[in-house]
């Protein structure tokens, strides 16, 4: 399909009024719908994310503790039980609410602003004006960049909690006092503030910024392209709405919306996965070296060290599992958001 045809297909998946003026939906609905979608998706995907972080955070100067995702999941379950697979879930759920709310608010408001600054050309009332793919990508990238500043502190605490169970077990003499349980999110946050100050909460920000900016552009764009393909498929089959008007994205079935969201999730996670791998290593190296704040390595240096120790495969440690869990997770996000939008406006 030629680029001009692709742009027209995307444009026609929207209602004409959506493109002539800013969306009527207030920003607080983006927050509500995005938050709801984030809670459900994060609760589902957390065990897979925990395994991914543990695979990424294995010390480079030691043999691998886990031989792959399944081995990591089995060992985690045997050592920590079912509850261990959801270790640190409280922070990600809160973060997912804020992340998705930020993504959808900035994405939709940015598109509205760009449409005002560069309005689409006039068309017949029955036709949808074309969408500028550059505007779509810029809006998505800006949304991801904004979300990254919210995500980094959340992921920092989450990653530190997720590697707690994978640390070596120290056998204590029978007369020794039992060790205290591992610190929770509040204690970890306080420890970061005490040792490194407020800026310490944004350790790993470079990796999150790269991943979210490029990944969000790929995420939203892939979803729009996939859903537009389903719309065009229905149009080519001669389908119309009950009132005789053209099929739009709001008319897609749950399966079509979830398929579009699933493809977006896979693309998002695969496109810049090494940045996420480097970020996880930076955020957990203090715990894996035994506590305390060591000398910080730059983003580039950590990437070079991982590549030197384990090659290109090391930069994609956990990528397969991440793509596997991203498909249903992203499908849930877009489905829940779209359905709430169609029900409540």
UniProtKB/TrEMBL annotation:
A GO CC term attached to the entry: mitochondrial membrane
GO molecular function annotation: L-ornithine transmembrane transporter activity
Coarse class of the protein's main subcellular location: mitochondrion
Entry membrane topology: Multi-pass membrane protein
Solcar repeat extents: 25-113, 131-229, 252-343
Key words of the record: Membrane, Mitochondrion, Repeat, Transmembrane, Transmembrane helix, Transport
Subcellular location as annotated: Mitochondrion membrane
Entry annotated with the keyword DNA damage: no
InterPro entries, per database record: MCP_dom_sf, MCP_transmembrane, Mitochondrial_Carrier
BP GO annotations: mitochondrial L-ornithine transmembrane transport
A family per Pfam: Mito_carr
Protein family: Belongs to the mitochondrial carrier (TC 2.A.29) family.
Record protein name field: Mitochondrial carrier domain-containing protein
């Amino acid at each position: 399909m030629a680029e001009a045809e692709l742009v027209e297909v995307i444009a026609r998946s929207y209602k004409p009024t959506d493109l002539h003026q800013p969306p009527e939906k207030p920003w607080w609905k983006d927050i509500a719908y995005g938050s709801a979608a984030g809670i459900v998706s994060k609760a589902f995907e957390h065990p897979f994310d925990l395994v991914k972080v543990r695979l990424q955070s294995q010390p480079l100067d030691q043999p691998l503790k886990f031989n792959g995702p399944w081995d990591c999941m089995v060992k985690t379950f045997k050592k920590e039980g079912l509850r261990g697979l959801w270790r640190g879930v409280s922070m990600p759920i809160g973060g997912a609410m804020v992340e998705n709310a930020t993504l959808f608010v900035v994405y939709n408001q940015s598109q509205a602003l760009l449409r005002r600054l560069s309005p689409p050309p006039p068309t017949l009332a029955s036709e949808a004006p074309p969408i500028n793919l550059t505007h779509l990508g810029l809006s998505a990238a800006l949304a991801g960049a904004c979300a990254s500043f919210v995500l980094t502190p959340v992921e920092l605490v989450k990653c530190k909690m997720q590697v707690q169970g994978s640390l070596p077990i120290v056998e204590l003499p029978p007369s020794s006092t039992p060790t205290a349980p591992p610190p929770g999110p509040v204690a970890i946050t306080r420890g970061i503030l005490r040792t490194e100050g407020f800026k310490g909460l944004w350790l790993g920000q470079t990796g999150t910024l790269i991943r979210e900016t490029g990944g969000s552009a790929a995420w939203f764009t892939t979803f729009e392209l996939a859903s537009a393909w389903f719309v065009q498929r229905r149009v080519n089959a001669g389908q119309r709405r009950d009132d005789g008007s053209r099929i739009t994205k709001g008319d897609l079935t749950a399966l079509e919306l979830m398929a579009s969201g699933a493809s977006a999730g896979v693309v998002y996670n695969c496109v810049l996965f090494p940045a996420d791998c480097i970020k996880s290593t930076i955020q957990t190296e203090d715990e894996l070296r035994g506590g305390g704040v060591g000398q910080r390595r730059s983003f580039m240096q950590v990437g070079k060290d991982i590549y030197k120790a384990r090659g290109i495969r090391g930069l994609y440690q956990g990528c397969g599992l991440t793509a596997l869990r991203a498909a249903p997770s992203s499908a849930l996000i877009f489905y829940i958001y779209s359905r709430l939008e169609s029900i409540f406006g």
